[in-house]
Amino acid sequence: SGDFSGQLLAYLSLGPIFIIVGFVTLIIFKRELHTISFLGGLVFNEGVNWLIKNVIREPRPCEEAHSTVTTKYGMPSSHSQFMWFFSVYSFLFLYLRMHQTNNARFLDLLWRHVLSICLVTVALLVSYSRVYLLYHTWSQVLYGGVAGSIMAIAWFAFTQEILTPLFPRIAAWPISEFFLIRDTSLIPNILWFEYTVTRAEARNRQRKLGTKLQ
Fold this sequence. Notes:
The chain is mainly α. Helix content is 73%, strand content 0%. It contains nine helices and no strands. It starts with a helix and ends with a helix.
């Protein structure tokens, strides 16, 4: 009570839940294979965390302080592992998947740098919150961050080298066509692509509407 920092960090520690909800929403509306793969990596990362916890079985620092935790084991921190997986994978996606061109604009580079700094900052704050709120020790948070980062690099490489070449074939499956699942892996900047295509289509329809009204 009255601990504003603790309350803020408690809200920040809900980050994984908001991220999962965001991914599910994005998949429902975009139905893009790389986004589905990203979510699959996050789920797999959580499974690996559960496995490591139940192998090491290191207790939390203050088990009696939190009666609502789903597991009494704390090594490694699942929040830390989740957030560092998300941040490192997003960093790799920004700088390798959305690869630069020679005429990349300054603002395009700037927003990537700013977003990367924000991702790392949030991951650090969520990791710190687990120690501040007595859910984990520093070592549990540190190893969670390391595990999440390694998993992110491995899953990104797996997605790029193994899954991405299969995406066009998967997108052509009848079930994929039925659910409107698409592959945008060959498009360097999907935001710019969708913007230009939508603007061109809107202008085309406006011209056709104007012709009919005449």
